[in-house]
Write a structure and sequence with these properties.
- By secondary structure, this protein is of the alpha/beta class.
- It has 3 domains: about 180 residues, Rossmann fold (3-Layer(aba) Sandwich); about 170 residues, TPP-binding domain (Rossmann fold), CATH 3.40.50; about 180 residues, 3-Layer(aba) Sandwich (Rossmann fold).
- It is about 35% helix and about 15% strand.
- A 6-stranded parallel beta sheet has the order 3-2-4-5-7-6, with helices on both faces.
- The longest helix has 15 residues.
């Protein structure tokens, strides 16, 4: 069949399950949006800023487990995507990023929004923060190029890819047969090394005091059920990295909560005890935040077994005894089979004691400052605010968080019980992320409550995207922790710079007026318990809603970030 260049691209995106494209129209993108108007099968969502469009696409991809799509026209609109794409690249989130350019015939002539004027090479910029960045110069190779982009984005460690289409090519026609995804990319990841599986299971079966550390790779591989079955059958305690919060239910007897610099006291004490003999790390690179700044305390006495989809992550930050490269679900399933071959499951007795784990958890708290979650003082303590939020939401509610103290409060005091219900952008750590990403998450899961926990500074950076939710009546709830300061920076200046505060405080934002000006409903709370009282009504209203929470500005998370 004959297709226009744009229609061919959209047909490929359509068969990958794409239902929405996030972006802002512009001069060189007009043929693209015109074809969207004609097709009517993919809905364009208009963002307020290009960075926000990427964040929305990122949130959509994380919740839907499908590829997110965003677009921008040439020049500064393309460079506005960079922070968002970097966030997705660091988080292994599959995105298809489309940009448009003036084309070679008009290059360096000073066209409005021209990419290459004054030697600003957008293509080279994108190469550093994507798995692939390509420019289409001939329509004859377009079909191959599109398939290659999708293959790269969705295979191995997933991530963003970038395709640039010159404006003059967009309406050209090509004669192509559209190939289904199963014929141009790997749909299942089932490879494994049996000998390494045998080594790993031998260490686990002989372990006296093993522990499992789960990273976000478990969520990406949809391996949550198999790892829970694995831990329960072998009676092995489980900790998670911050990004994997909720990947293992935090109310489970075997859960130790979060390990690392922003972790729970119980997880850090257990893994730093020096008594762990075998550590199974699944889907984590053991980066700075999840390994207590690489301080050498994460050294099991007998073996560190690391599972990751990317070979270069194995042994990168901690010496690895056995490295298993591949899909976490596949490898854990095969490890279960191998253990059943090596033992009689009916007679197998785990070396660890349920009573021993229960006793350890009774003697050690999940919370660094547990008494504060019951505080009745005003302004409300952030620890108490997190408890009130947890008590007022269904277990399956999805929470997005920003970097900074808002993330740290949520990590430490907002327990999660289901995978995929806690989403954060640790890695590239763009501020303002959660405000926009939550919109994409709600589009992907309209039946679930979606909450964004953000600081007032991040609200100032990307709060305009609330108008995007209002425009499409997307009922996200934003909880703004308002303390008139850059929380993490203020904490660093207090403890590391002897209280020399500079450029870390500001006049309090009137968040309610701003939100109402954007068309959202807004409320303000200052006292403990108020959030629990109003949340049912706010959820029932099914409107975009901003909650301005005035919190105790002197409270700081118990975390080692310095």
């Amino acid at each position: 069949m004959k297709y226009s260049v744009i229609k061919l691209l959209l047909k490929y995106l359509e068969q990958e399950g794409v239902k929405y494209i996030f972006g802002i129209p512009g001069k060189f993108l007009m043929p693209f949006y015109d074809e969207l108007y004609n097709m009517r099968t993919i809905t364009p969502i208009l963002a307020k800023r290009h960075e926000g469009a990427v964040f929305i696409a990122d949130g959509y991809a994380r919740v839907s487990k499908q590829i997110g799509v965003c677009c921008a026209t040439a020049g500064a609109e393309s460079t506005n995507l960079l922070a968002g794409i970097g966030t997705s690249y660091a988080g292994a989130v599959p995105l298809f990023v489309l940009t448009a350019s003036s084309g070679e015939n008009a290059m360096k002539r000073g066209l409005f929004q021209e990419d290459f004027y004054d030697e600003i090479d957008v293509m080279e910029m994108f190469k550093t923060i994507t798995k692939l960045s390509v420019d289409v110069s001939e329509v004859n190779y377009l079909s191959h190029t599109i398939r290659h982009c999708l293959r790269v984005a969705l295979n191995g460690r997933k991530g963003p890819v970038h395709l640039n289409l010159p404006f003059p090519l967009m309406k050209e026609e090509v004669e192509e047969e559209i190939i289904p995804p199963s014929e141009y990319r790997l749909m299942k990841r089932t490879f494994f090394d049996r000998e390494e599986i045998k080594k790993a299971t031998k260490f686990i079966l002989q372990a006296q005091n093993p522990v499992i550390l789960i990273g976000n790779g478990v969520n990406n591989a949809k391996a949550n059920r198999i790892i829970r079955k694995f831990a329960e059958r072998l009676v092995i305690p489980v900790a998670t990295t911050p990004k994997a919060k909720g990947a293992f239910p935090e109310n489970h007897l075997l859960s130790l909560g979060i390990f690392g610099s922003a972790g729970t006291p119980i997880a850090n004490k257990y893994l730093h005890s020096g008594e762990v003999d075998v550590l199974l790390a699944v889907g984590t690179s053991l980066n700075e935040l999840s390994s207590s700044h690489y301080r050498g305390k994460l050294n099991p006495t007998k073996a560190l077994i690391q599972i990751d989809i990317e070979p270069y992550q194995i042994g990168k930050n901690c010496p690895t005894t056995v490295g298993l490269c591949g899909d976490a679900h596949t490898l854990l399933t095969e490890m279960m089979y191998q253990i059943s071959r090596d033992t009689n499951w009916n007679e197998f007795k785990p070396k660890m004691s349920i009573d021993g784990i229960r006793s350890f958890k009774k003697e050690n708290s999940m919370f660094a400052n547990e008494k504060m979650i019951y505080s009745d003082s005003s302004p409300v303590k952030p620890q108490r605010l997190m408890k009130d939020l947890r008590d007022s939401l269904p277990d399956e509610a999805i929470v997005f968080t920003n970097r900074g103290n808002s993330l740290l409060w949520a990590l430490q005091y907002f327990p999660c019980y289901h995978p995929g219900t806690f989403l954060c952008n640790i890695g590239f750590s763009s501020k303002g992320y959660a405000i926009a990403a939550a919109i994409g998450g709600k589009i992907a899961a309209p039946q679930k409550n979606v909450i964004a926990i953000v600081g007032d500074e991040s609200f100032g950076m990307n709060g305009m995207e609330i108008a995007t939710a209002v425009n499409y009546n997307i009922p996200v709830i934003w909880l703004v922790l308002n303390n008139s300061r850059l929380g993490t920076v203020y904490s660093m200046q207090k403890f590391q710079y002897q209280g020399r505060y500079i450029a870390s405080t500001f006049k309090r934002l009137d968040v309610v007026k701003i939100a109402e000006g954007l068309g959202a409903q807004a409320v303000q709370i200052e006292k403990p318990g108020e959030l629990k009282e109003i949340m049912p009504r706010l959820i029932e209203s099914k409107k975009p809603t901003v909650i301005n929470a005035i919190i105790d500005s002197e409270e700081m998370p118990s975390v080692d970030l310095f």
